[in-house]
Amino acid sequence: MKSYNILFLCTHNSARSIIGEALASTHPSGKFKGFSAGSTPGTSVNPIAADIAAELGMDRTLLKSKSWDVYGQPDAPKMDFVITVCDNAAGEQCPFWPGQPATAHWGFPDPSQVQGTDLEKRRAFNDVMNGLKRRLDIMAAMSLDKLDSMSLKEIHTKA
């Protein structure tokens, strides 16, 4: 079975995109390999996002905040899909992606901006995780070799 590379983009690559990478890489269908990056990456991964990724089975040592320029290089893995998960990154001029992958915006509020108790913060991260999981589950059930940008964007409205 073919595995499809999915790049999740967010501004700082510290929370939403990290969760997307972990969900795709550990998806039970085995159809995805997740990657993540940001337009202006931070210096670290949010600890709650790292905890969620580890709970999903992702190796914490693989989680790094990195620039999206890494994936525009000639020797970078070829992406089949590029998905922005924050409104800021969706509005930015993205680099050229080799292979012209299908693209979509699946926006979620930034869980790292939630103020409150630890439980309220964790709930915000879980909301992002559950939303991304629903979309990946829908995607996994589709014929991925024929999935284009328009169909990929429609997944956002179905979930």
UniProtKB/TrEMBL annotation:
UniProt-recorded Gene Ontology molecular function terms: arsenate reductase (thioredoxin) activity
EC number: 1.20.4.4
Example GO biological process: response to arsenic-containing substance
Transmembrane segments: none
SMART domains noted in UniProt: LMWPc (SM00226)
Chain ranges of the Phosphotyrosine protein phosphatase I domain: 4-142
InterPro entries tied to this protein: Ptyr_pPase (IPR023485), Ptyr_pPase_sf (IPR036196)
Primary enzyme class: oxidoreductase
Protein name (Swiss-Prot/TrEMBL): Arsenate reductase
Source organism of the structure: Polynucleobacter sphagniphilus
Lineage: Bacteria, Pseudomonadati, Pseudomonadota, Betaproteobacteria, Burkholderiales
